[in-house]
Amino acid sequence: MMMGEKAEGGGRQSGGGGASPHHRPPGAAQAAAAATPLSGIAEAFEEMAGLLRSDKSGGVELRLDKFCDACSLVSVLFGCLGLAFKFAEMEYIAKVRDLVEASKTHRTLQNILDLDVANNSVRTPGSHTRNLRRVRQGLDLIRALFEQFLSSDDYSLKDAATTAYTQVCAPFHTWAIRTAVYAGMYALPYRDQLLLKLNETDKTAEKKMRRYIKASIPVIQYIDKLYISRNISLDW
After folding, report:
1. pLDDT tens track, the chain, 236 positions
2. CA-to-CA distance for 141 and 96, rounded, in angstroms?
């Protein structure tokens, strides 16, 4: 569960000492965010989606550092949603931070899953595989939220956020957590307040949100396939 689970950002230590030559400092993805947060997010995920879609052999390996760069940009969206998603924001950031540390010694997403499978620690609290699962849920929650945002002109975001949460995260949460989350929906910013925080208009936001929705789907599907191909279920 992405929201409502105790933060596990520290994780366990990856093997090895210093940074590997595969690790790079934040690059184009962060630079792109200088325009607006949504611009940077859309461009970063379009880059990954383009790589995945161009792969005809099924042998592409998504680099962990590039994935982390893109996911780090998404953090600002949770921050813009206010107090209702504050705990989700803290959890998401902690888990992305763990994957950033892992990227210093592991080149691809496959590498961290294979290590946890070998160590029989896939579902161990703090494992990279567990944290990747939570980050994936965070990306999917934003995708669902954008879809709901674009399907209505409602001034309030309560219905959009409630529907998105119900679809993506609620199935993995206890009754107590679901109750707390739904109660917090009343603290969400209004539509125009969110657009102001994102430095967007309805028109510019719609275009960029649709770009993220389209680009995030193959990335999310790619992650799911990594789990399924290793006989790791997706029901947690």
Report:
1. 444 444 444 444 444 444 444 444 455 555 544 489 999 999 999 999 999 999 877 788 999 999 999 999 999 999 898 777 777 788 899 999 999 999 999 999 999 999 999 999 999 999 999 999 999 999 999 999 999 999 999 999 999 999 999 999 888 878 887 888 888 888 899 999 999 999 999 999 999 999 999 999 999 999 999 999 999 999 88
2. 15
Kindly report the pTM of this predicted structure: 0.82
How many Å is the Cα radius of gyration of the chain? 17
- CA 19 vs CA 16, 68, 186: distances in Å: 8, 15, 44
Residue that is written with structure tokens 């409602």 in the block? 154
Give me 10's structure tokens.
């520290």
